[in-house]
Design a protein that fits this description.
Strand content: 35-45%
Structural class: mainly beta
Number of strands: 10
Order of helices and strands: EHEHHEEEEEEEE
Distance between the termini: 49 Å
Shape: elongated
Radius of gyration: 26 Å
Helix content: 10-25%
Length: 173
């Protein structure tokens, strides 16, 4: 048989009122109690049944699933398959003269749209910047992912990995 206990703790009461104001705040004077009865909690999420990885693990890079890129002073199509893709790496620019620009673009066959960019104005010879890249993009039918650098002192290097197909079905590493 379960035993019931009354809890008189202003600290616990204040915390519950802060976290759950609709449960007892506003000075309602609600008593809190505890019981020795064991009440099972059943987790019905997909993670609990073991069919899917946690999101952070599912988006991990791996040897066979990663497509590497190294782009300097050109535009390169990296992906032309529909779905959700993770792009990770770095963008570097060393200034010598003029404006430098490294871009990640989605192209629909008619036009390109920049979805990520790293630019550097002429800050003097030998100055440079490096920025990490870690983004997720969606490519629909007819879309392709392009990486573009406009100078031989601009570089983008890293890899892409498909996280899910066009319908959102996850692709584990």
């Amino acid at each position: 048989m379960a035993q019931e206990f009354r809890i008189n703790s202003s600290t616990i009461e204040a915390k519950i009122n802060q976290l759950l104001p609709s449960q007892g705040g506003q000075g309602a004077g609600v008593d809190f109690s505890a019981s020795t009865m064991v009440i099972p909690i059943v987790d019905l999420t997909e993670s609990a049944e073991g069919s899917n990885l946690r999101v952070d693990l599912q988006s991990a890079l791996n040897f066979t699933g990663a497509t590497v890129f190294d782009v300097t002073n050109t535009t390169t199509t990296v992906i032309n398959t529909t779905g959700y893709w993770r792009i990770t790496g770095c963008s570097s620019i060393v200034t010598s003269a003029g404006n430098k620009l490294n871009e990640i673009q989605i192209d629909d066959g008619l036009a390109s749209k920049t979805v990520w960019a790293h630019s550097s104005k002429d800050a003097g010879v030998g100055n440079g910047t490096v920025i990490n890249i870690d983004i997720i993009v969606f490519l629909g039918a007819g879309d392709s992912l392009k990486l573009k650098t406009n100078a031989n002192t601009g570089n983008m290097i890293g890899s892409v990995r498909q996280l899910a197909d066009v319908n959102g079905n996850l692709i584990n590493p």
